[in-house]
Amino acid sequence: MNTPKTTQAGPAVVLRPHLKNSDLPAIRTLVEETGMFSYAEIEIAAELVGEFLKQGAISGYRFAVAESEGDVIGYACFGPTPCTVSSYDLYWIAVHPSQQHRGIGKQLLEDAERRIAESGGTRVYADTSGRDAYVPTRAFYERMGYIRVAVLPDFYAPGDAKVIYAKSL
């Protein structure tokens, strides 16, 4: 699916469903440069990429990678929720700050949802932070049709709730 997509401004974006070895450092850098994630979270994002590169589909992780002019500018990581019949987790979705507000996050999420549905998935869950810095993230999920289904106060740290969104496909 390396079809160029039209975005709001800038060079064409190509989405691809598979990771390349060069994606590991590119995704780590991308996640770091968003400024939204802690060191531990950055390490987890890189670990999931590494697991897929070592094990392939058996890892349980799936990816959508957005490229522009050969550079990774966004990605999504998702996979089936263990011990469920048809639920999936959206583990990560990130777009480089210089590329935000071009519709790339929407393309990544729509691609993930399409692939989840094609795999028999019927529901997607996305977790995010309740901190003020994540207001745009929560608004994004809501614009994309996700419903806030739970808020777990002080989950990540005192004053930092876990906000869980769900969408039926």
Offer a concise description of the structure.
The protein has 169 residues and is an alpha+beta fold. Helices cover 31% and strands 35% of the residues.
What does this structure look like?
Helix 1 runs antiparallel to helix 2. The protein has an eight-stranded mixed β-sheet with strand order 1-2-3-4-5-6-8-7, sandwiched between helices. With 169 residues, the chain is an alpha+beta fold. The protein has four helices and eight strands, in the order E-E-H-H-E-E-E-H-E-H-E-E. Strand 5, helix 3 and strand 6 form a beta-alpha-beta unit. It is globular, with a radius of gyration of 15 Å.
Helix content: 25-40%
What is the average per-residue confidence, as pLDDT, rounded to a whole number? 94
Residues in β-strands, percent: 25-35%
Uncertain stretches of 5 or more adjacent residues: 1-7
Structural class by helix and strand composition: alpha+beta
Rg on CA atoms, Å:
15 Å
Number of helices, counting only DSSP H or I runs of 4 residues or more:
4
